[in-house]
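The records we work with from here on pair a chain with its fold. A complete example follows; check for yourself that the lines match position by position.
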Amino acid sequence: MIQLYKAENKSFECNGDMTLIPSKATVHVVMNGAWEAEIEHPIDKEERWRYIKENAVVKMPSFNGKQLFRIKKKRKSDSGVAATLEPIFFDAKDDCFLTDIRPTGKNGQQALDIMTSPNNKYTGKSNITILSTAYYEYMNLIEAINGNQDNSFVNRWGGEILFDNFTVVINDRIGIDNGVELRYGKNISVDGLSEEIDVNAVATRIYPKAFNGHKLSGTGYIDSDLIGKYPVVKSVTMSFEDVKMISDIQGENDTEGIIICNNQEELDDALIKKCKEQFDSGLDKPVVTIEADMILLKNTEQYKDYVILEDVSLGDTIHCRNSNLEIVTDARVIELEYDSIRQKVTSVVLGSFQYNYFNDVSGMINRVEGAIRGDGTVVATQVQGILDAVKTQMRAQSTIAKKQNVRAMLFEDLDPDSETFGAMCLGTMGFQIAGERTADGRDWNWTTFGTGKGFFADYIVAGTMLADRIYGGTLTLGGYNNQNGRMTIQDASGNEIGRWDSKGFSASGRFESKNTSDGSSVIVENGYIYIKNKAGKVTGAISYINGGITIDVLVGSNPPRLTLSENGNIMLVNDNGKGSCSIGGGEFLSLSADNISISGGKTGTAEFSDGSYLQFKSGILVGGRTSSGSTF
């Protein structure tokens, strides 16, 4: 049912002022781009058409549930009335103005909470965990979210946008992957179908280079598993500036994110891994863009291949299999048109998604450059690949659960107000748990999985977690809503030997910091600081002994010791005790040794008129005679 609410009626949870019976009602969306609706209504004897006025609100079915749209423009003709509508959230262009909003060091959800605070009518949801900062002054909320400016939310945090009435959902990825496969490339001419297969950017052989031109040993290249699918080898050279030999980082203080290789073997391993990551991200597969008009395809033989697209949603992943190459390329629903009367998708564009602004929705990303999103996150990371594969597997099981209860069972509570709202799918392949629906409301947002190979989850909350090995890219402790984080290290007896908390790092065990350029190192252990030379031998130590700081040289036949006491005395003495130098709080200087010399001093005799004299050796007074004739 399609209902209309007069401009002054804001009770959208109730029935509208008039039920419309339009001849056409469609919703057209482009990912992170245009989002609008169109309706056409005949001149009817009940005069429903008269209610279609500017600023009135229409509630109509969309691909993501019942949605509110505001009429922005209408056109009347002899046959009826046509109107163009925008999502109700676009009202925020007028009544959610950001005069001075500054989300600083916040994740996606925190930033949206701050950005929507000027008008609590609007809310935002986001699963983006990266932290970023942006300043918004004298702009509306829609501009701040995805305007053509460097500090927009999408530019700073990234994300894909879905409007759900007065809520905007900006997740790192919208849509789902149900394992749907579409065969294309049969070269059959038919109205309503357009297939573009672009192999210009395909590469099946990579000649990798590290920083400073270091190359892969052996043949010097890495081949894709799909190299035999193409008539010729498609070769490219790729530079990976974050892979460096240890000789190339001398003098660099910041090596975060740099892969340091000590020898050619480690360099080869790093370059091979980098090349495989490129192939995993789709470098060896064609770019596929498919446009399908389901209405025009309805009465064709090809309709059976494309009918699966009638139930897709924005952002969904479709596995497109080329009938000639037998290569599967993952494409996403980047544009669609939904028929609100038939309640089916009538037009779909499958392709590669590029971050766009609301006023700029054209362009195709380069495959290699497109491996990194605008927010700096990698598209095809190892962890994301594992999660996606498991999610696809488990969603296949949930389909079985609905059809064959013996192999799998689906438990769900669809009432969002219920205390037991959520779902669990349990079967022979494992289990999956969800606590919320997807952004478009078509499926459960499965976030926790268990299979015979392990457990997978977007978040794991535990009191105590036991693990032999934990692999990951970023470990975050504490922060928002979790107060101060703390990491402790214990020895085999359970004694704490190290702690890292909000006050800093402390340890009672052993800590070693190495100089990567020459191999020397500093060791901190049991209150001592030891210095090792590049051969690994301890050459010196710094400690606190008897109320002072002591520096010992631990090499040589008579190694010296320097002591700085708390009372201001300074003493330098060698190991055999035959020589020393003391300075007493600035009040005295004492030298003790078999031979004392001061470099650069004069040697000779100073004679006086009364017959006395003084004798100096190397600037030091060593004797003399008084006027009475006595010597000393």
